[in-house]
Structure formats: C-alpha cells, structure tokens
Amino acid sequence: MMDPTDDRIAHGGALSEAVARHGGSASEWLDLSTGISPFSLPLPELSADCWRRLPEQAEVLRVCELAKRHYGGSVVPVAVPGTQAAIQLLPWLAPSADMAAIVSPTYGEYELSYRRVGKTVKHIETLEAADSTLASTVVLANPNNPDGRETMRDDIFGFARAHRHRLVIVDEAFADLRQDLSMVGAAGTEPNLVVMRSFGKFFGLAGLRLGFVFAEPRLAGILSQRIGPRAVSGPALAIAAHAFSRIDLIGELRGRIDKANTMTRSALSRAGVRIVGEAPLFFYCDVGDGAAVRDAMASRQVLVRAFDHSPSRIRIGLVPDELSAVRLRETLRFAGARVS
C-alpha cells in the first residue's frame, strides 16, 4: 500500500506557491492554471440559519432533484463535497477488484485513489484497450483533463453494454458545455455505469466544494454510506439551489464563457502558440518545453500549468477580459523568445 505522505501531486491553482517563488502579490497575478470558469454566478443572499443549522436531509434531496433536472439524469444523484471527495471513494465501489484501467494521461488523483488502497493501475490509451487487461474497473474523463480529448457517447454506451462485468466510471467535470457527450442519462439504467459531475468548474465556484455522482441505487448507497451524513454544507446547498433554478443566469454564463474562449484562442493564435487539444474551459498547447515556458511566464506573474507526463505542453485556462488576453499574448511571446 502507498505511503500517504509520498503521494501528493501538483495541481493547478497553486497561486500562493507561485507568489512565494516568483514574487508579487496575489492580486497582481493572472492565474490561468486551472480549468475553472473565470466568471461566477451571482450569489444569493443567504440566511443566518443557513450558516447556523446543520443541513436537513430534505434540503439535500431538493438540491439533488434540481441537479438531476439540470444535468439530465435518470436517477437522483449523490451530493458530495466536490468530485475530488468522490474520487477517493471510487475503489470502494468494487472493493474486490484488484486492477483499475485508467484512460491516460489524465487527472492524477484517479490513480492515487486506487494505489492508496493497494490496487494495481493500468494506463490505457482508449476504452477499448481495457480488453487486453484484467481490470474490472475502467476510469475515463470526458472531456479529458488536461488535453480535452473527447470520447463519443455512443462509444461509451457501447463499451458499458458490452462489458457488464466491468465498472465504468466517467468523470464529466468539464462536460457542462459539451452536454452532447454526457452519459448522465444512462447512469442508473446501466448498472455498471457511474458518472461524476462537478458544480464548481462551470459555475466558477470551485471553492464551494460541491459535486454530484449518478449511479444505480446499490452503488449510490455505497457512496452515501462512505461519505457519511451532512457531507455537503448548508451554504453550498443553498447556492446550488439558486444556481440550478436560474436558467436565465445559466444562459448568460454560457455566453460569457464562449466569449472568453474566443478571446483566449485569439491570444494564443497571435502569440504563435500551437493548440493541440482543448475543452470549452481550457486549451492544451505544445510550446516545446512546458516547464521552461511556465517559469518564464511566472516571472511576469502569469500562471499556467505544465505536466511531467507531457513535458512539451502546457494547459491554459480562459482569460476573463480583453486586457488579460493582451497580457497573455505578450507574456507568451516573451516566454517563447526567452526559452528559444
């Protein structure tokens, strides 16, 4: 079993570490190291009771019903304090399984969650490659993080149907703007399918720590028991209920994200950066030496993400406005000239 003191991995959003290393104040930095929307839904006014009381089960159920409608589910999901918390519990959905196959490269926490409990992990390039393994669990992020790779819904559905003996886990943290890829509607009707959705990335409220897991009742029951009662805070539930009920604000947010995506794409193009993958909330770029470009950009207080598994590449989140787009463009030009 892994030593839990040795299994930490780097993530985006480590702004305080960047400030400590490269200087400046947090307010001076342009943090593009995550795939979180640069815009947030306007927050509702929360009652004092929302902060003082423990959340009632009826409140949890109401928000889960709203999440079912919002995401297009066929079953009521399990509310979790961020999908990161659900990832830690994935091995318990098939506790007797010795091997998990993970479509890679991808978010590193899937592997860690299985290795922590002594499971073997097999990295595969496609869902179909699981056929050549003994894995009884297959994990797929769709769209994938960090490269934005997409797997079509029919392909996932066909794989799940043809491999009923395997548990198929799909992380749709970045699917809010690609609902055509979503398997949420099939989770619950397909007994071996589990789908995770993140609330914070699309709504720009990652600090809220909220997510939803769609699965058939037996698997949902395991998750609920493992995560325990009152895992999600009252304020998080109140904000989610507000967000899910405001279709007008959701439409406005989609429009702002689309505009930010266009501005970011234009900045990358004008800087001569090659986009090799993307999702609506980020771009994956080949820059020759990802770590060197990241560090050069950090010297000008712009934070992006580099990867050990793909050393020539960086991931860049969306800029919030035109001024930030110009700053990104000029910083990329500076970094490119410095590294070359």
Automatic annotation (TrEMBL):
Q: Does the keyword Transferase apply?
A: yes
Q: Required co-factor?
A: pyridoxal 5'-phosphate
- Domain of life of the source: Bacteria
What PROSITE patterns is this protein classified in? AA_TRANSFER_CLASS_1 (PS00105)
**Domain named Aminotransferase class I/classII large: residues:** 78-320
Recorded E.C. number(s)?
2.6.1.-
Q: Which GO terms describe its molecular function?
A: transaminase activity
Q: Which keywords, in A-to-Z order, does the entry hold?
A: Aminotransferase, Pyridoxal phosphate, Transferase
Task: Give the record's family classification.
Answer: Belongs to the class-I pyridoxal-phosphate-dependent aminotransferase family.
PANTHER family, per the entry: HISTIDINOL-PHOSPHATE AMINOTRANSFERASE-RELATED, THREONINE-PHOSPHATE DECARBOXYLASE
The name on file for this protein is Aminotransferase
Q: Which organism is it from?
A: Hoeflea ulvae
